[in-house]
Amino acid sequence: MATFNVKAIGKKTVNRCGHAAYALSTRDELMSQVLTSFVNEAKYYGDTTSDMITLAREVAATDGVFVAKLAVYARTVMNMRSTSHVLCAVLAHEVKGQTFVRRAVKRCVVRGDDATEMLAAYFALFPGEPLPNSLRRGLRDAMNEFSGYTFAKYRMLGRTVTMADAVKLCHPRRREATRACVAGELAHVESWETELSAFGNTADVWEYLLEENKVPYMAMLRNLRNMLEARPRNFELALSRLTDPQAVANSKQLPFRFWSAYRSVEHMASGKVLAALRDAMDLSVRNYPRLGGRTVVAVDVSGSMGCWLSGNSSVSYADVAALLGSCVVRLSDDCWLYTFADDAKRVPVVAGSSVLETMDKLRGWGGCTNMAAVFDAMERDGVDCDRVVVFSDNEVNVDYSWRSPAEYGKNALQSRMATYRNRVGHRVWMHAVDLAGYGTTQFDGADTTFSAGWSEKLLTFMALAEDGTGSLEAAVEAVEL
Fold first, then answer.
1. pLDDT (tens digit, 9 = 90+) per residue, 320-351?
2. Three-state SS at 308
3. How much is the pTM?
4. Which among 130, 179, 326, 409 is least buried, having the fewest CB atoms inside 10 angstroms?
5. Cα–Cα distance measured from residue 439 to residue 32, given in angstroms and rounded to the nearest whole number
6. Is 332 exposed, middle or buried (CB count within 10 Å of its CB: 0-12, 13-18, 19+)?
């Protein structure tokens, strides 16, 4: 049994819809919520931020090292800022006198404003309480390595906690820069943001920024619309950088960022621009392990999946499920693809299709979450596969395809998976990806993996798990503090 296997869940519970499910272990539930959540953002079945904080405090009380590693993993691997700030604040509050807290705090300061945001998170969560020494010292360690540029760029004027506040609280040793920061005497820092703010979204500004290579990859991706409106003459530089394989790998951008950029400009961009975004998205998954044998991909398109990832996003859980499902299709040697809501529908797969081309076929129609219909469809189609990959929020709320009305909701879908394995007579992996972090799963036991989040990195864990060499929990445990 691979280390990725869900470990000793066993305990039956119900999901938020009242349907049978398996309770996750406290650590797994915390991982699920941390890696699928934006802080203080609504979900279809309610904001889970308070649950995440309660869980983090509970786990920190008995296993602070794991919470520390999870915070670092969320920030440095999954590129999640706010949740790492919250975890560090909770960790510093709950665990006293341990140097690993200080080290975790430092590791989670990747940008200058991580320091100010972490302080703001602590003051919001624990108003009136003194700042723990571990948090203060960890932030001081990080700020000791800030350049004068960093202090100037991330002044955070007008925010609850400014960089000057952070300097006064943490006392970093860069005396000249910190003195100027507190005195408000920091020199103007030229960046793509300040240039646009000072001179506007014009062709001349973008031509200068692109020529001098002053636009980071993420900023370039997010500002495609502005560049298209301004029409810089050297716009080709932006396209060449967006499609550079090494730049894509180094950007750490999640695939849905490319899709979001694509959607924001598709009504105004030329075919060349859209092709560049399509190619960049395909590059983001090209170097991941292939999945041999036959794969079944099941994408949840029910009503609850239509909820936005955050209040500032126009990307839904359904979009991410379609995107990650399409990535698995691209990684698979042979694939059967289904969507499911009230019923399951088979989606034809064309070899060599881009991620975007496959996504276009995975548009939802809303309705209930009848995950059992996937197994009905597999039986109907005579599918004999080596793995099943499900992308869902796990809020199964109906199972009317094979049980009598009196049996509705009494069994998690693990029973259907067991029946399928018996029918085909060989080992079949179940990879259940939780996109919303509500705290339950439909699958349990051997040859079953549970992972959470939206990153294509999760696709790597599937291959590692089948080799018996990796897991999401193992990846967190491997973090060095």
1. 889 889 999 998 999 999 999 888 999 998 88
2. strand
3. 0.68
4. 130
5. 7
6. buried
Nearest to 463 by CA among 330, 331, 299: 331
Element of type H or E holding 389: strand 387-392
| Percent of residues in the chain assigned helix, strand, coil, to nearest 5 | 50, 10, 40
Collapsing DSSP to helix, strand or coil, 295 comes out as strand
Q: Are 393 and 435 spatial neighbours (Cβ–Cβ below 8 Å)?
A: yes
pLDDT at position 386 = 96
The alpha-carbon radius of gyration of the chain (Å, integer) is: 24
How far apart (Å, rounded) are the C-alpha atoms in residues 266 and 273?
A: 9
| Alpha-carbon dihedral 33, 34, 38, 43, rounded to 10 degrees | 0
Residue 170 contacts residue 143 (beta carbons within 8 Å): yes
Helix, strand or coil, per DSSP, at residue 379 = helix
CB of 256 within 8 A of CB of 323?
A: yes
pLDDT at 412: 65
Q: φ and ψ at 390, to 5 degrees?
A: -115, 125
| C-alpha span between 232 and 195 (Å, rounded) | 15
- Residues 86, 119 contacting (CB under 8 angstroms): no
Alpha carbon distance 68, 169 (integer Å): 22
The residue among 68, 76, 193, 81 whose CA lies nearest residue 135 is 68
The rounded distance, in Å, linking the Cα atoms of 101 and 81 is: 17
The label of the residue with tokens 């881009």 reads: 354
Q: Sort strands 448-452 and 429-434 into parallel, antiparallel or unpaired.
A: parallel
Both tokens assigned to 284: 């983001």
- Report which DSSP code applies to 316: B
> For residue 32, what pLDDT band results from cuts at 50, 70 and 90?
low
